[in-house]
């Protein structure tokens, strides 16, 4: 899809009840020019932080995207930050670039490189260093986490709620699972806006690899089958989330919007990329 075709999709061809859409990219070589020619300016783009990249690459890509006219949400992985001064330097760079939101996560590194073992410790320092200048997003897990119990995950969200601005869920493939998760959060007293994390167009083999690594639960089981659901959701050997996004938009379920994990495939669904002030 080209930048010429996207504005037509944004002009109102989708149902009026559609959810806002944010996208996530990995700051690999060559992705920024691809974004600039594919994604309309003003769209919100989250930039991941991978252990082998470190936060510097995330910070650099985020500043460049902000200069191109995008609303940018850099990821800060707690266990990838070596020193408090490194965090302070990144936050100063974000402020200079006009960035107002970050996403705090523990990260995939096996060992902490510095003073932050988890996202709560990181969030506390972000709030102290920046004086509340940045909205902070946190992760949610509709289908659990391979290393933590459901009770531990809820307790962690309750502990972070006073510092958090929103929740972005782990990748999920079921509208009903996401709706049930939002209902659970509300029943437990967690009232943060929730963005439903769904995958973009991803090859089947890549999905299976990701599922094994991050612990995606029952909603992905269709991918290993050969029944009608798998045939309907897999096109040319790749999964597309357009049906799932449609189901979420129809259900609403108290969601703020959809957070699309693109894996740098910017063949985006025909849905609104504007946040509409959310």
UniProtKB/TrEMBL annotation:
Pathway: One-carbon metabolism; tetrahydrofolate interconversion
A Pfam family this chain is assigned to: MTHFR
Keyword Ubl conjugation in record: no
GO MF annotations, alphabetized: FAD binding; methylenetetrahydrofolate reductase (NADH) activity
Keywords (A to Z) from UniProt: FAD, Flavoprotein, Oxidoreductase
Any one Gene Ontology cellular component term annotated for this protein: cytosol
Reaction equation(s) it catalyzes: (6S)-5-methyl-5,6,7,8-tetrahydrofolate + NAD(+) = (6R)-5,10-methylene-5,6,7,8-tetrahydrofolate + NADH + H(+)
Cofactors named for this entry: FAD
GO biological process: methionine biosynthetic process; tetrahydrofolate interconversion
The organism's place on the tree of life at top rank: Bacteria
Keyword Cell inner membrane attributed: no
PANTHER family: METHYLENETETRAHYDROFOLATE REDUCTASE, METHYLENETETRAHYDROFOLATE REDUCTASE (NADPH)
Protein's recorded name: Methylenetetrahydrofolate reductase
Species per Swiss-Prot/TrEMBL record: Sinomonas puerhi
């Amino acid at each position: 899809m080209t930048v010429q075709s996207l504005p037509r999709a944004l002009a109102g061809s989708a149902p009026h009840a559609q959810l806002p859409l944010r996208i996530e990219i990995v700051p690999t070589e060559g992705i920024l020019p691809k974004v600039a020619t594919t994604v309309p300016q003003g769209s919100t783009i989250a930039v991941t932080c991978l252990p082998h990249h470190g936060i510097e690459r995330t910070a650099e890509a985020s500043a460049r995207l902000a200069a191109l006219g995008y609303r940018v949400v850099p990821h800060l992985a707690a266990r990838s930050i070596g020193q408090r001064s490194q965090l302070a330097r990144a936050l100063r760079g974000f402020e200079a670039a006009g960035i107002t939101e970050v996403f705090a996560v523990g990260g995939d590194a096996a060992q902490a490189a510095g003073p932050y073992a988890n996202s709560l410790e990181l969030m506390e320092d972000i709030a102290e260093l920046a004086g509340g200048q940045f909205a902070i997003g946190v992760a949610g897990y509709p289908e659990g986490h391979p290393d933590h119990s459901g009770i531990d995950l809820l307790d962690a969200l309750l502990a972070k709620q006073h510092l958090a601005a929103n929740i972005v869920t782990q990748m999920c493939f079921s509208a009903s699972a996401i709706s049930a998760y939002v209902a659970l959060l509300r029943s437990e007293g967690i009232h943060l806006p929730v963005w439903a994390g769904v995958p973009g167009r991803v090859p089947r083999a890549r999905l299976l690899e990701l599922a094994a690594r991050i612990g995606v639960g029952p909603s992905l089981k269709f991918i290993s089958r050969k029944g009608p659901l798998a045939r309907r959701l897999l096109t040319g050997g790749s999964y597309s989330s357009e049906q799932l996004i449609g189901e979420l938009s129809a259900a609403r379920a108290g969601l703020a919007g959809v957070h699309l994990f693109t894996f740098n495939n910017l063949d985006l669904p025909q849905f609104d990329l504007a946040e509409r002030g959310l």
